[in-house]
Structures are given as structure tokens and as C-alpha cells.
Amino acid sequence: MATRATMGDLIARVRLMVDDPAGTSAVFTDQEIQDALDAHRRDVRYLPLAEAPTYSEGGTVSYLEYFAGRSNWEADAVVQDGNYTVLTPASVDYTGGIVTFATNQDPPLTMTGKTYDLYAAAADIVTAWQAKVARVYDFSAQGQTFHRSQMLRSLGDLAKALANKAGAGSVNGSGSGMTILRREDMN
Questions:
Q1: Structural domain total, the chain
Q2: Each residue's pLDDT tens digit, 108-148
């Protein structure tokens, strides 16, 4: 199974969090990181976006920027207007959940897509890394002592730190789930 092209930024950010650079020396494949992210995914349908009005001289109001209030979106999220017409923003900050348009787009707007708990996914990756190095041992040779077990302890500390930051947007602590929002102004 190939990784989804829309996951590239999220995978790279998890790699940075766990200090596992991509390439031949990587401990984990992109697919393994994507699988960890998918375990902490939340599917979001029709999330109302908060508009940020822009005021021009003479009192003219434009709506060019919208905020999702959620972060870490997969790069395939869709923005729709009040008639469910798919819109094409000038730019989308998937990390911060900020949508920007070149021309006015009157509210209400919604966003449908997937968000991820990067800290929980990173904690899972580091825990799996711990399992990979669980058999390392300390040894002495030629008057020197080598403490390879420090890696196991360091990874354990990192996993705990990441797990402590996890949970934003989680469902019952699992980090995965679905949010369905319904507009009350429609039948």
C-alpha cells in the first residue's frame, strides 16, 4: 500500500518530532508513520469555519480568511459554501487550519476532511522504536564501557513526553473518531 500524497507534510512533521529523518538511515518507513497517524485520525464533516472580516475604507466588509479551529489537517480537505458548492481557496494552511481566498466568500463556509493527533502518533512511533532497541546491552571492551541501554531510557522519556502532549481532539482518549456537524439553518 502506498502512502497518500496528501500525508507528506504530516509524515515529515512526525519524523521531526521523533528525530527519524527520511532516507536510507530511517528507522521507520513513511507507510509505518502514516499508519500511526491513521490510528489517531478524526474524520470531520461540515465543520463551520469562523470568518475573519476585512474592513476597507468606507465600511466595506470582505470575507477572505476563515479559521477551522482545528489543526493538523490532511492536505485533501474540502471547503464548501452554504449551498455545498466546493470552493477553491487561494491558500490553505493545513497545519493551522486557516483558509484564505483571493476574492470575497460570504459565510457560512464549512470544511470536510481529516485531522490528526501528531503527538499521539509520534508517541506510538517512539514506543515501537523502543521495542526495536529493547535487546541492546551495555558492554566493556579494551578498558572502555559502552552504555547502549541509554537509548532505551531516552526513547522511553521521549515517548512519555509526547504522550503527555497528546489528546487534543481525541475521542475517549483514543485519538481517532468522527465529528459530524449539522447546519441548523437547513432542513
A1: 2
A2: 999 999 999 999 999 999 999 988 887 777 778 888 887 77
148, three cell numbers: 547502549
CA 79 centroid distance within chain: 18
Nearest to 76 by CA among 33, 122, 115, 134: 115
What is the domain range of residue 179? 1-40+117-187
Q: How many residues does the chain have?
A: 187
Secondary structure letter of residue 104 according to DSSP = -
CA distance 144 to 136: 17
Neighbours of 68 (CB within 10 A): 25
Do both 108 and 121 map to the same domain?
no
Are 63 and 154 in the same domain? no
H helix and E strand count, the chain: 4, 11
> CA geometry: angle at 177 spanning 90 and 164, to 5°?
90
Question: How many whole angstroms from its chain centre is CA 128?
Answer: 19
Q: Are residues 4 and 30 in the same domain?
A: yes
Which three cell numbers, joined as nine digits, stand for 115? 485531522
Instruction: Decide which of 38 and 176 is more confident.
Output: 38
**HSE-CB of 80 using CA atoms within 13 angstroms:** 15
Q: What are the backbone angles phi and psi of residue 52, rounded to the nearest 5°?
A: -120, 100
Q: 29: which DSSP letter?
A: -
Q: State the CB neighbour count (10 A cutoff) for residue 105.
A: 20
So what's the pLDDT on residue 109? 98
